[in-house]
Amino acid sequence: MRGKNGTNTIGHGSIDVNECETIPDACKGEMKCFNHYGGYLCLPRSASVVSSNEVMGVDFQGPSSRTESETYNPCPHGYEPGLHDTCVDVDECEQDLHDCQPSQQCINTAGSFTCRCPDGYRKIGTECVDIDECRYRYCQHRCVNSPGSFSCQCEPGFQLAGNNRSCVDVNECDMGAPCQQRCYNTYGTFICRCDQGYELGQDGFVCNDIDECSYSSYLCQHQCVNEPGRFICTCPEGYQLLGTRQCQDINECETNAHQCPESQTCVNIHGGYQCVDTNRCQEPYVQVSDNRCVCPVVKPECRELPFSIVHRYMSITSDRPVPSDIFQIQATSVYPGAYNTFRVRSGDEHGEFYIRQINNISAMLVLARPVTGPKEYVLDLEMVSVNPLMSYQTSSALRLTVYVGPHAF
């Protein structure tokens, strides 16, 4: 039968019962069960029990009757007997004789042990508490604490350097920045720029074409045509670009771009050309040279007509400022004592022209009113010569064909 002190009585002797083996979970938690004669103790795992043969009530029957836990230990605390009367350190960590928390690491020491917290934790009392590394400003930009550790993060436009703490600028232009045309990296960000002829959209990425033609009507002399990223100037038919913006008349007569037959002469005008008959003399006039016709005095009908007519051609632009000198008349023959006067004999029915005499032998044809082409005038400019000493009067005419171009250039 079982005694009160945990013994079984057989005859006059008593045999100790090892409750640490017979009672399931005799000690709870981190406590360790130590059997002794007549009972057991629940002690911390770091504790040890040294048994003595003087324990009251013990029926000592010799060394062979002692349990292993009751063996006499002559060594200091934390050591156990070894060979040849030596003392060997007890590895409490290996023998599970420590009281470290499950989250702690047991470190064996000479004669004892210590409980160490994992990296990133510190020991407060018996507990391991997470260290907030972010308090120590390990990161250049942002620090994110985590249990037992931390991580560094960078602001947009930066990335972690090799030390995982510093932040270095990111070249977004090399990493596919959404700039449509040109990208410039800056510290922590980037900017987009556009080529000439484009402007940056509101999103800061897309480049929109600039319609230069809409900004001014003076970019081109004739017509402005907008194109992606630029504009070009165009000229009307019969003109060519002079530089990039002005228009210059094409002289089809010099470039042989005309279609005049051999019986006609090519006359260049603004924006085109005219084919005129080589012989423009009409009765009663007869041709005496390429452009000169003479009315013979032997013909009665020549008495009231200029003695000679010289054909000339010129071209002026539309909307020319007025008054404007456009053609000078010069006498080719001068006789002593003769007095010369000049007038517009015909072709100026609406008064667009007048004659301004310069001296006795020359005069200037003046444009008096603005004219808009295309238009053609045929003016007979007459010079009347009077010689009072010889009671002689004669006249000659210059038949001037004036072509007004369709444009102001």
If you had to describe this structure to a student in words, what would you say it looks like?
- This protein is mainly β and 409 residues long.
- It is built from two helices and 33 strands.
- The chain has helices spanning 19-22, 252-255; strands at 7-10, 13-16, 31-36, 39-44, 79-81, 87-89, 105-109, 112-116, 121-124, 127-130, 142-146, 149-153, 158-160, 167-169, 182-186, 189-193, 198-200, 207-209, 223-227, 230-234, 239-242, 246-249, 264-269, 272-277, 286-287, 292-294, 308-316, 324-330, 339-346, 353-357, 362-367, 375-387, 392-404.
- The strands form 14 sheets. The protein has a six-stranded mixed β-sheet with strand order 25-26-27-33-32-29, with no helix packed on it. Strands 28-31-30 form a three-stranded antiparallel β-sheet, with no helix packed on it.
- The longest helix is centred in the N-terminal third of the chain and has 4 residues, at 19-22.
- The protein is rod-shaped, with a radius of gyration of 63 Å.
- Mean pLDDT is 87; it is low at 1-13 and 51-69.
